[in-house]
Protein 1
Amino acid sequence: WNYLVSFANSASLIVENNEIEKSWKTSIEGIRWYETRGWQLDLSGENLFVETPDMPKELHRIRARLRRTYLRTVDSIGRVFSELLENNNSDLMKLPTSGEILLTELNKSKEPVALIYLDAFRFDLGARLAELINQGEPAIRARVSIAIAPVLTISFIPNCFSISSRAPTFSLPPDTSIVNVLFETSTIFALN
């Protein structure tokens, strides 16, 4: 029954988000969709592709069909988002950076603040962590926000990604309460 419940949840998310991208006019709308609901579709799709050797053979066809439907749905969403981004990538500059979010939170609260930075590919992890922290609390204490990562790069190719080639180094100078984090990055170019 656990497999059927999981498949039903995945099917529900696929149906709910089928052709959602047709209502978007800007890439920001796609980003906001991902922030509120899209990450759940992503997570359910990830779960569909986990191999489970103890799953009954009768369910393999159902999972295969769900996988194909999921891939078609996210492919369509991805194509529309990419087109919107290509047509107007200045929308991304409207998003706050992680530093701007940090300053806003620090100025807003006199209580201690903890921030956890996650890659967008692990948005589900942040959402689940916030849900666990907020469980049983009288007010919302944790939330997940989307921010643009301001990584500088010099390139004539418009599609590039910066990745860390080594683990970050952390330092905490004795005379301050600020943690310094150093990442060494490489730039990878992707041609369309």
Protein 2
Amino acid sequence: TADAGTGINAEAGDVSIEAESLLSFLDAFARYVAMPIGVSSVNAGVDLSGVTVTGRDISVSAIAKDSPLVLEAPAYVEQFTGFLKNIMNTISDNAISQLGFNASVEIRSADASVIAHDADFNASGAVSLSSLSEANATNTALVTKRGLIGDFQIAVGVVRAAGSAQTLLTGTTQIDAAKSVRITSDLSLIHI
């Protein structure tokens, strides 16, 4: 988005460029129904090559967030989601569960990048270039006492969270700002 004044003495307004990739609740649910093993990846990026950006405050950001279905569910459907997950796990692992065994897998990935190559940023205010990436592989594995071999029970949970966040200034990129310049990359990985 860009705000600009009008008229002869108009000044450039705020400029905001944002790329966002979030795994929505419906996407997460559809993926889980299709494959009870939770595997997904999200990516968001902004590539500014050979451009000039002029404005008051300039903000460029990329945000990628990936979380398991249980964390994406709105509070009012949390119980329903847990019920469906238990049903899906029961159906999908029925053969091995007869032996008193259950496994649960969550693999999550999120990558975010902002790249400015041979770019010029001219701000009468502040400049902010940022990337944020979050991957959450929270998981649980449960087994009930229903094995064919006495009380023998095993529950295995496997999690993997991976990601990257990078904000790169390459080539002849220049930043001219009357106020602050903030360049950040934040990465958060949760393995539980």
